[in-house]
């Protein structure tokens, strides 16, 4: 009666069953897996609530690629991050997951393959199967830093491979694609006429700068590439349901892809009017929902000592290459160590100074 896409065992696993038992019996569980920002205790700025105070939300003017005003807001977001993207290359979706669905429809026939990184989050198998596409993995390896295992990636390629997916930065490793890796990927994909899909939802969350790091494929001018992101992670607003696809690569490839992608989007018209009109204000206000600005090590040390009477050492004493690291000794007496760390955590939790 049902589609063969649903080939998974839908019964709860042991972990889910045990968790439900504990919660049903009232046992408090410290959840270290929470990934929903709306349940993380953030104080959303009032500007986000006011972003929908616009009479235009009561009108309906469907645009397949999304309203130009919202696409211009996304283009401005990229400009602020140093990449020039024309609004005409930006297509709005209700989410990054929907963007994958559009791209799999665009690029692949039933039974074709897409390559996905391993380790990575487990959503790809489901997204691919829902489009009758097979997700095949290529490994990332760790040798002082995470990198693509090229021999395994090339071995995974077949004549039915239609796309190589990058999660940049990767979830869960936090590693970014390096510039030399991107050059090799572009050459490989262009030679084989395979698209690159770059999931960049966490791109704004780097702790330090790295000239070798690639933050977006939106400016790629060879082959065919797609850069994906959205409000869910950029502004901590998954409930607003606004994502986007930037079409990149050679002008000819972009043109062919855009024509078909817009046709797919026109079939669904899934993005709400209100969030499109609010996009400019949401992207601006959402900056405050990203990780707090880092203070210098010296500022942290001074605050700890001045307000919490705790002494630690700055990382630069020990030649750390980047900020901000605090160094403590493990030789302190247990009671002093425990109390000191407790005050340090409170200092970090307070964080505004």
Helix content estimate: 25-40%
Strand content: 5-15%
Q: Name the strands of the widest sheet in spatial order.
A: 1-8-7-6-5-2-3-4
Say which CATH homologous superfamily of the largest domain is assigned.
Type I PLP-dependent aspartate aminotransferase-like (Major domain)
CATH architecture of the largest domain: 3-Layer(aba) Sandwich
**Fold-level CATH name of the largest domain:** Aspartate Aminotransferase, domain 2
The class by helix and strand makeup works out as alpha/beta
Order of helices and strands: HHHEHEHEEHEHEEHEHHHEEH
Could you report the average pLDDT, rounded to the nearest whole number? 91
Question: Tell me, what's the shape?
Answer: globular
Roughly how many Å apart are the termini? 61 Å
Q: How would you sum up this structure, described in words?
A:
- This protein is globular.
- The longest helix has 18 residues, at 251-268.
- It has 353 residues and is α/β, with parallel strands linked by helices.
- Helix 4 packs across helix 9.
- The chain starts with 13 loop residues before the first helix and ends with a helix.
- It folds into two domains: 46-288, Aspartate Aminotransferase, domain 2, CATH 3.40.640; 297-350, no CATH class.
- An eight-stranded mixed beta sheet has the order 1-8-7-6-5-2-3-4, with helices on both faces.
- 32% of the residues are buried.
- It is 38% helix and 15% strand.
- Strand 5 (161-167), helix 7 and strand 6 form a beta-alpha-beta unit.
């Amino acid at each position: 009666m049902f589609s063969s896409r649903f080939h998974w065992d839908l019964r709860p696993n042991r972990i889910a069953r045990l968790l439900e038992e504990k919660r049903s019996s009232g046992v408090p569980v410290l959840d270290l897996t929470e990934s929903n920002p709306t349940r993380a205790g953030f104080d959303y700025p009032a500007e986000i609530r006011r972003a929908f105070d616009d009479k235009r939300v009561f009108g309906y003017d469907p645009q397949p690629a999304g309203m130009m005003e919202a696409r211009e807001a996304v283009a401005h977001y990229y400009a602020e991050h140093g990449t020039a993207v024309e609004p005409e290359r930006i297509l709005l979706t209700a989410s990054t997951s929907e963007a994958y669905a559009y791209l799999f429809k665009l690029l692949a026939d039933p039974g074709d393959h897409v390559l996905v990184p391993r380790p990575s989050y487990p959503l790809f198998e489901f997204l691919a199967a829902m489009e009758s596409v097979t997700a095949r993995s290529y490994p990332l390896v760790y040798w002082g830093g995470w990198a693509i295992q090229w021999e395994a990636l090339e071995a995974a390629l077949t004549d039915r491979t239609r796309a190589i997916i990058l999660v940049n930065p990767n979830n869960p490793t936090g590693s970014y694609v390096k510039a030399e890796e991107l050059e090799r990927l572009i050459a490989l994909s262009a030679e084989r006429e395979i698209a690159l899909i770059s999931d960049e939802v966490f791109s704004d969350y780097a702790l330090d700068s790295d000239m070798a790091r690639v933050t977006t494929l939106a400016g790629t001018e060879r082959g065919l590439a797609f850069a994906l992101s959205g409000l869910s992670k950029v502004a901590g607003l998954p409930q607003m349901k606004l994502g986007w696809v930037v079409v990149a690569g050679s002008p000819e490839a972009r043109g062919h892809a855009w024509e078909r992608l817009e046709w797919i989007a026109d079939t669904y018209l899934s993005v709400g009017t209100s969030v499109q009109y609010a996009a400019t204000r949401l992207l601006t206000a959402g900056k405050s929902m990203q990780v707090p600005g880092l203070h210098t090590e010296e500022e942290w040390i001074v605050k700890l000592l001045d307000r919490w009477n705790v002494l630690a050492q700055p990382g630069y004493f020990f030649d750390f290459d980047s900020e901000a690291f605090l160094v403590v000794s493990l030789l302190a007496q247990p009671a002093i160590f425990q109390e000191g760390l407790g005050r340090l955590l409170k200092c970090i939790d307070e964080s505004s100074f």
